[in-house]
Design a protein that fits this description.
Layout (H helix, E strand, L loop, with lengths): L1 H9 L2 E4 L5 E5 L1 E4 L9 E7 L15 E5 L7 E11 L3 E8 L16 H6 L17 H12 L9 E5 L6 H13 L9 H11 L6 E6 L1 H9 L11 H11 E5 L1
Parallel strand pairs: 8-9, 9-10
Antiparallel strand pairs: 1-2, 1-5, 3-4, 4-7, 5-6, 6-7
Helix pairs in contact: 3-4, 4-6, 5-7
Amino acid sequence: MNILQDEAMRTKYEIRDSSEQLIFSCSDLIECYSFLETNNNYWFAFTGISEQNVHLITNEETYSIKSNQFSGRFYCKFTVKRIIKSPDALYVCLSLSSETYSEMYSEMYKVGALSFLQAVNNIEERVWLDMKGSLKLIYISASYLKNGIPRTLEKDTVVIEGKCIQDYYAFFCELGHAFFGKFGYMGSCIDDVSKLMEDLCSEDKKINVIWKDSDLSFKAIDNSLPQGYDMSSSGFILMTLEEYCNVILE
């Protein structure tokens, strides 16, 4: 039994082909710097590989990575662009599939989330304040991997600190923190928020939300809207929250 447990702990990731046949397993998956910023291509390093002669088909076969960590929440599909073998690691340039979705609308895994979680044992409460723009999506992805989709809310009143919302993406970081604390997850777009609110709120009891420094955060959100996100302005966000919550603006 101990041998099996030790083996399970060493084997954190499984790589399977499109027919779900196991190609190899490994003890670690390291996200490397992306030299190819287009078409969702990234370099990954697989270490502690179970097979000595790994054969991956480039450009044609679709593979998947699954993990026994994060309660099964880590999952992605990819095709292989390039392979570099070394005695200690297998380096693979992956093209991540846009089909990597879970039960929410937005993509769950963002490259960098695994490395982020390994580096934040003593993380400050609002680490995203030091993250620029869309890099905050890595924090949101890490929050999903760590804590998953919330099903219940124990609070009657939630406090949103508007001074901690310095741009559009920071709103979703702060919303998750306000509802569930450090690494709290409330989605990465307004559609996610709406779906989660629908699950968390009941028809006969709305959540009380106090939004401090709301004017300041509204300006920060509207001044940093990504291109094509007009339906995610502060007014639309507020309207979505008010559908499920008693919102008090301060």
